[in-house]
Design a protein that fits this description.
The protein has about 325 residues and is mainly alpha-helical. It has helices at about 25-35, 50-70, 70-75, 85-110, 115-125, 140-160, 165-195, 200-220, 230-235, 245-260, 285-295, 300-315, 315-335; strands spanning about 270-275, 280. Strands 1-2 form a two-stranded antiparallel sheet. Bound molecules: Phenylacetyl coenzyme A.
Length: about 325
Amino acid sequence: MYTQSMSVPDEAGSRTVQPLPSTEPADRMARFDACIDADGRIEPQDWMPEAYRKTLVRQISQHAHSEIVGMLPEGNWISRAPSLKRKAILIAKVQDEGGHGLYLYSAAETLGTSRDQMVQALHEGKAKYSSIFNYPTLTWADVGVVGWLVDGAAIMNQIPLCRCSYGPYARAMVRVCKEESFHQRQGYESLLVMMRGTQAQRDMVQDAVNRWWWKCLAMFGPPDADSPNSVQGMRWGIKRVSNDELRQQFVDATVPQAKVLGVTLPDPLLKWNEERGHHDYGPIDWDEFWHTVNGNGPCNKERLATRVKAHEDGAWVRQAALAHARKQEQRRMKEAA
Ligand code: FAQ
């Protein structure tokens, strides 16, 4: 299974891409580039080029939104989990995803954008979140498959981010990856139990795998050749491994897991390529991916409406927390006077 031990080679990322032209002050830029070249960390108080700051706010806030919106497809199943044990596990997992969103909003706030601004951008449809959360979880098997494949893909993408050049993001990712690893294992274990059950349960698992497999491959983002942010992201040490390389790693790691589980991955072209030392796989439907990313997937509207309603319904909690904090502050001032 996936763990922190899936490390990233030192030469990955920034060092393989030369600095790109910039209009920032040359001396500051040189210090920044030297830090990136030395595989150092940029911290909130350090000078950084505006484009680096903007890219990080974009990526980290999108990531935070994905975690928060990602609570919804599984959250729908908390009241319908088949046993107390599964309910307790699912509540813990969904709660963890909420926590990941909060670490990530905090990391993004260190770059000078407030959480309110980021949340507003999500609610106005200006900020993206992962395509994968715009598909429905139709049966209980979907919950296991989301754990196995969606969290599995998320870990594959996020382990390199533990070594991202921006310190607060990298540190947040260490904890996130540990928790995602538990999520992936619980999903796989729940599928193993179903696969040892009745034929109807096995069919339900296979059906869920059929519906999620291709969406998970697309989750890694467009092919490298069509990924406008990749070259700069790699140069800055934000991205360490490319979209296509991560996708390939995910396929290679998942094929043997599917075999142990006893499910078929829905791709007739999937086969081991001795020469490449990797599995070949069939073409991904990028039109469908962009259709979803652009707001027209099966659940985009429902997900956003649910988030906006939850935010509005929670207004009184935010007001109460602020009032409590003000009261505490006043008490402290009185005592200090
Ligand atoms: N969905 O040039 P690139 C999780 C956009 S967390 C939607 O390759 P980049 C945990 C991309 O933003 C899952 N949009 O971009 C969990 C860009 O548009 P922009 C989220 C996508 O940034 C599990 C455009 O396409 N993980 O699952 C997607 O270099 C279970 C061009 O793309 C992260 O966010 C997509 N799938 O690479 C929670 C990890 N892919 O912004 C609950 C951090 C691409 O220019 C339950 N993020 N786009 O308008 C990353 O690693 C990167 O941002 C990538 C995209 C790899 C997602």
